[in-house]
Amino acid sequence: MKQIQTVKSMQHLAARLRRQGKTVGFVPTMGALHEGHMSLIHAARKACDIVIVSIFVNPTQFGPAEDYTTYPRTLKADAALCRRAGVDFLFCPAVKEMYPSGFQTFIQVEKLSQGLCGPFRPGHFRGVTTVVLKLFQILQPHQAFFGQKDYQQSRIIRQMVQDLALPIRVIILPTMREADGLAMSSRNAHLSREERRAASVLYQALKLAKERIRQGKNSSEMVRKNILDLLHQEPLVRLEYLEIVNSEDFKETKEIAGHILIAIAAWVGKTRLIDNIRINIRPKNANGS
Ligand code: AMP
Asked: How far is CA 127 from CA 60, 84, 153, 217, 274, in A?
């Protein structure tokens, strides 16, 4: 596995791989790799000739009061994991490489960035789409792999790819979880023991919602109440939002039908966690993911 630091050398390599007719799979990450990231890397390894992983803690997607400086950075361990997983190239540019002085071009997917995490993290998705588009431009991948854990982000990127007619297949893969159901996240490392225990209530609440829906409940309000009742039993968890929406356009749904996303953001101590489930309700037959 080769590590690449500069945009220029990455561009040269991408051009060479294209000339050689290789299919390139790309997994963008911010590092502190865990099994969630690795599941994307394994999928890319299976699907493509060449796998490129990027590790870049992207400053433009963090708000001024957010955890940019304390975000875990574990490049050495990450590189070892990537090597073992058969990654061909690790792209880990410095901030100045991606945002040289004078940088001023940003991309925004307008409507999908407004709901869910949007109001709580102003500018976040603008930063995400800008860096991902720039990475796409530099790497020229055929396929790019994202996690359902950050479903809004994945959906926004899929929209950007469609809107800008980028010749890239966006693949969204299931959330990897700890044994108690907590969605794996680089930020879980910040949780104290007590907080870590409490955090599992997020997935328990989502699972309960899925069960209720499978039992035939189709009122968003009722399902919402079930979720809130459970979350309120855990004093260490402070809910930021709970949304039951259409998973394509993020519009609120009163009646649970069709493609549904139930998404939660919550603070556990000083750590902000997100999780979601998608459910597809076909007439008279509920089927979850
Ligand atoms: P991050 O390093 O947090 O920016 O995440 C990089 C990619 O890994 C994104 O596409 C995330 O959605 C994905 N990812 C993060 N956590 C998980 C998880 N628990 N399961 C699956 N994918 C994940």
From this structure: 5, 30, 11, 38, 18
Q: What is the DSSP secondary structure assignment for residue 214, as one 8-state letter? A: H
How far is C-alpha 141 from the chain's CA centre? 18
Paired sense of beta strands 271-282 and 285-288, if any = antiparallel
Q: In this structure, what token pair is assigned to residue 258?
A: 């069709």
Q: What is the pLDDT of residues 30-61, one digit of tens each?
A: 999 999 999 999 999 999 999 999 999 999 99
- N- to C-terminal Cα distance for the chain? 34
Over the stretch 119-154, which tens digit does the pLDDT of each residue have? 999 999 999 999 999 999 999 999 999 999 999 999
Would you state the pLDDT for residue 286? 47
Q: What is the pTM of this model?
A: 0.96
Question: How far is C-alpha 259 from the geometric centre of its chain's CA atoms?
Answer: 19
Cα 247 to Cα 278: distance, rounded to the nearest angstrom:
7
Integer CA distances (angstroms), 24 to 27, 48, 58, 136, 140, in order: 10, 6, 22, 11, 8
Q: Which residues pair with 284 in a beta bridge?
A: none
Which residue out of 30, 37, 78, 176 has the highest number of ligand 1 atoms within 8 Å of its CB and is therefore the one to mutate?
37
Q: What are phi and psi of 233, to 5 degrees?
A: -75, -10
The response to whether residue 40 sits with its C-beta less than 6 Å from ligand 1 reads yes
Residue among 124, 268, 122, 119 at smallest CA distance from 187: 268
Ligand 1 near 147 CB (within 6 A): yes
Q: Pick from 182, 152, 160: which is nearest to 247 by CA?
A: 152
